[in-house]
Every structure is written in structure tokens, then in C-alpha cells.
Amino acid sequence: MMKKLVLAVCVGVFCLFNIHAQKIAEVSLTLQDGNVIKGMSLFNDVELQTDYGKLVIPIANISNVAIGIGKDNASISQVVPLLKLLNTSQNEETRKSAYNDLVKVGPKALYTIEQFLSDPKNSGGAEYSGTYTIDGAVTEIRSQANLSDDTPYLDVLTIDNHFTMGGIYTFGKLDVKTEYGTLSIPKEKIKSMDISVWSPPSNGEFSFRLQANKHISGNQNGGWLKTGIHLKTGQSFQISATGEVILASLSNGKYKPDGTYAPGNGAGTTGEEPEYTTGTGVTPVYGQVVYKIGEATNEPSKAGKKFSGSAKQSGMLYLSIYETVYNPANTGSYIVKVQAVAK
Fold it and tell me: 207: closest CA among 243, 261, 234?
């Protein structure tokens, strides 16, 4: 198993940002090689080129970007002649040279290769059973770049923690400020990135959707929703929640935000409503809305359907549905509203 390198957030980074046109965001980058880099970065609103035109999406509404392979038309003139050689030549040395040159082009050649192979006029090439084939080059390119067979060509954005949109998000690199300094990460090295825009304390109300098929506290990959709300020690905040989820991990029981439930088959009565106590010393009940402040905090605190309290420490507010076992077959969602009182 590949060991992951995690770079922590630079605590004092905020004094370095003073650009009004851009938004401060906490980012967690998963690289193509499996390493993880965490820190702070600056973002403009995202211009996403789609098949239906260009969309401008506020960066504050984007929670995740999965980086696609891309459609690099600039490489066509370089790639197509190599493909024609591999499709027609019977000479082993000629094929070997074309094969090696194609692999050197890397992932940006993949879209052109797919288009070439799907064109009927390129079918029925020379019969060849050796090593230097187009399919072999594709396999080697994907292997060298750690790309799975289902990696999309488009970049896929998750919007409002719920909707997805595919297109081309053009940027050359991302500058990430960590406690070890600023790192410039090229786009092609990034597999995905979680984004949480810094929201200064305010009296406003924020609304979030907790999805039962993702935001489960026992889910080690994205189980906690980052609200982007940064609380200060002693700052008052309120949480309220509505909705219903069905937890396949608990025999398809139907759960409410306060943890009350009904058996999955509809029999029996609703479970007893738990006390709305909070704090890390009280164990939450299954299906209940929970929160934590700061990513490093491991112990969830009860929120339920209605909570009012103050932050015990400074940090970002995270939300989740309490369950120790994660099952992606869960369905339903809670709508959670958060109010933070400016301190």
C-alpha cells in the first residue's frame, strides 16, 4: 500500500492573503501518485467550458473537483502520425519508435487515440501480433500516470455538495500554502481536490444537505461535510435539521435528525427520542446529526434536530450523520441549517 504524505495547514497563512477578487479556501489535494497535500489557496470563480457553453460557477458553491484526463487538441498533429504508423506499418523498428514516442506524449494523447480508434476509416489496419500496438501504448500511458480505465476526460465539479457538472476547468497549476511553504502543483498531477471557501463569522444562515449515501461519520472518505464556516472559541452557533434517511447499514431503518427511528419493514413503533445533550463525553445515537470543530477532532458531538451552543475551540465546523458503519446503499438526506453569531 502506498504511503500517503500529508502536509498540514499553515495556521498563520491568512495574513498573507489580501486579494479581494479572490476567495480564501482550505484545500485537500489527492495527487495522482496517492499523496495528499493540505493547505490554503486562492480561487477565482470557476469558468467551466461545457458542451453547452461556458458556465461561471461561484467557487463558494464548489466542494470537490475531480480532474479528468483532458481533451488536448494541441497534440493531434503529434499523435496522429504515430497512430497511423502503428496502424499500418509491418516494420518492427518503425513500430517500436512510434510506440515509444506515443507513450512519451503521456495522458494528453489519450483523447486523440480514442477518436482515432473510433473512426471507421482507421479500422482494418495491418495484422500485427507483437508488443508495439496502440492498445499497448494506451495501457502503458495509463499505468505510468496512475489512471484507471474509468478516469473521465472531463473535469467533474460537485456543486452545493449534491449536484455534479462535467466540463473543462482550465488552470495550469494550483499554489497551496502549507506550514512547509508554498507548493505549486501542476493540474496534471492532481487527481481530485476538496475545496472549502473561508466563510468569516457572520449572523447569516447557511444551508447544507447531508446525504446518507456519503456523509456518514464512519465513512473514511468524505464522511464529514466541510461547511466552510470557521468558528472562534466561545462563538455562539445554532444547528437545526429536517428530513429522513434510510440506513441500509442498520437493516434499512428510517431515521430522523434527532436519532428517532422506525424499523425498515415499517413494523413496530418509533424509537425513544434521545436527550439533546452535546459534548464529546456523550455518545451520539445512530442516525443523529453530529458536528465537530476542526478536522483533527475525532469525537463527534450531538446536534440532533435542534442545537444551540458555543464553540469549545476555534476551527471549521463539520457536519455528519452518526453511524460507525458506512454503507453506500443508504438513501435520503437531511437539510441542515447553521447560524453563526458574529463574535
Answer: 243
Fill in the amino acid letter for 291.
Y
8-state DSSP, 22: S
Among 66, 59, 31, which residue's Cα sits nearest to residue 45? 59
* C-alpha torsion angle, residues 332, 333, 334, 339 (rounded to 10): -170
Write down the H helix ranges in 106-230: 110-118, 134-144
Helices (H), 119-270: 134-144
pLDDT band at 187 (very low <50, low <70, confident <90, very high): very high
| DSSP class per residue in 227-276 | EEEEEPTT-EEEEEEEEEEEEGGGTTEEE-TTS-EE-TTS-S-PPPPPP-
User: What residue ranges do the domains of the chain occupy?
Assistant: 6-68+154-197, 73-144, 205-340
Question: How many Å is the maximal CA-CA distance in the chain?
Answer: 78
For the chain, the first-to-last Cα distance in angstroms comes to 45
**What are the DSSP E strand ranges found in 32-126?**
36-43, 46-50, 53-57, 62-66
Look at the block and give the residue holding cell 479528468: 68
Q: What angle do CA 338, 321, 234 make, to 5 degrees?
A: 40
pLDDT given for residue 275 in this prediction: 40
Q: In sequence order, what are the residues at sequence separation of 6 or more whose Cβ sits closer than 8 angstroms to the Cβ of residue 214?
A: 222, 223, 328
24 beta partners: 42
321 within 8 A of 217, measured Cβ to Cβ: yes
pTM over 0.90, yes/no: no
Give the residue with greater pLDDT, 203 vs 287.
Answer: 287
Are 121 and 8 within 8 A, CB to CB? no
Rounded Cα distance between 119 and 112, Å, is 11
Q: Which three cell numbers, joined as nine digits, stand for 240?
A: 437545526
Beta strands in 108-224 (DSSP E): 155-159, 163-169, 173-178, 181-186, 190-197, 205-211
Any idea which architecture 205-340 has in CATH? Sandwich (2.60)
Distance, CA of 88 to CA of 259 (rounded, Å) = 66
**How many helices and strands (H and E) does the chain possess?**
4, 21
DSSP for residue 105: H
